[in-house]
Amino acid sequence: MNITTEQPKIIVIGSSSIDLVLNTEHPPQPNETVMAEKSESFFGGKGANQAVATSRLGASVYFIGAVGMDPFGQQIMRNLVDEGVNVGYIVETEEASTGTAYVIAANGVNSIVVVPGANYCLNEKHVAEAEKLFTTVDLVLLQLEIPMETVDYASKLVVANGKKMGIYASPAKKLNPEVIENATFIVAKSNELSIIFGDEPREQILRKFPNKLFVRDDTNSTTYFNGTEMKYYRNDHDSVLHKMGMGDAFAGGFAVALCHGNSIDDCVRFGNDVSLKVTKNRGSQRGLPYLKDIVQE
User: Fold this and answer.
1) Count H helices, E strands: the chain?
2) Is residue 8 within 8 Å of residue 58, measured between CB atoms?
3) Are 61 and 85 in contact (CB under 8 A)?
4) Does residue 28 have a cis bond before it (omega within 30 degrees)?
C-alpha cells in the first residue's frame, strides 16, 4: 500500500442527515407497538459519511450538499467543519428541513426509513456554482440520496474536466448509461445489482465492468472482475455488530487509495480495512478511522 506525500483533493457531492436510532428487541410488525430500550442520534447521510471518511484519511475534502435552516442543519455544518471538511458549497435552504433517517435496530438488523428533506433540493445550479473546483481536484465522489438529475449533471462536469469519479450506487436506482461509462469505479450492494444494471446474473454483470464494479455485502466482502478472473476479498471479525456506514467507508477508503496511485487490489484491501473499523462503533461516522490507524497496521 502506497501513501504519497501528496494530499489528495476530493469533492463529495451528496447527502447529509441526522440518524435517529431506536433500539428494540425486534422490529415492530403491522399494528404492533414495541418499546425501545433506548434512542440515540448520530451524524449520517451517505455524502457526509464519505466526506468525513476521506478527510480522516488525509484528503482535502470539499462537500457539496444541502441542509435546512434548522438546528439539525447547523449541527451537521459544525460537525463537518470539526472534521476538516470545507463546507463553503453547502446550500442552506428554506424549502425543506434537514434530512433525517429513522433507524430501528433489532438483533443486529437495521430497518431504515429516510426522509431526504433538503437533500432533494440539491440541484444542477448548486453544483455549477462549484464548477471551478472540478478543474483542480483528483476525484469526485457521488451517492444516490440526491436527485438523479444532479448526479447526471455532476458526471458531465467530471468528464469535461478529465477527472476520476466514484459512485456508491445506494440507495439503489437505475443508473444512466452515460454515468456508468463516466465512472472510474462503482460500488454496489450485492442484493441491489438488478435495480442498478438490469436483471442479469451477477457474474455476467461483473464481467461487463472489469476493475470498475465492486460488489459488497454486509460481511465486509468485495467481489470484482479484474478482466481475467473473478476476485473476492473479505476481512471481518467475530462480531460485526454495527453495519451502518460500511459501504460509505469502503468507498471513501477505495477513493483515497486510488488517488495515491495504488493498484485495484490494494484499493480494495484498503477500502475493506476502513470499512471494518466502522463495524466496531455505533453510528456511521463515529468509527471511521484516521490514516494513522490504518497505515500503522
Assistant:
1) 10, 13
2) yes
3) yes
4) no
Identify which of 214, 21, 39, 188 has the alpha carbon closest to the alpha carbon of residue 103: 21
Q: CA 258, 211, 45 angle in degrees (round to 5)?
A: 60
- Determine whether 248 is an active site residue: yes
Rg (CA), the chain: 18
Contact present, 245 and 143 (Cβ < 8 Å): no
To the nearest 10°, the Cα dihedral for 83, 285, 138, 147? Answer: -110
Catalytic residue among 248, 265, 273, 293: 248
The residues that bridge with 185 in the sheet, in sequence order, are: 166
User: Do the strands 139-143 and 109-115 form a parallel or antiparallel pair, or are they unpaired?
Assistant: unpaired
Which residues of the chain fall below pLDDT 70? 236-243, 281-283, 296-297
Q: Where are the alpha helices (DSSP H) in the chain?
A: 46-56, 71-82, 124-128, 148-160, 177-182, 193-197, 202-208, 246-259, 264-278, 291-295
- pLDDT given at position 115: 94
| 8 A C-beta contact, residue 164 and residue 140 | yes
User: Measured between alpha carbons, how far is 196 from 201 in angstroms, rounded to an integer?
Assistant: 13
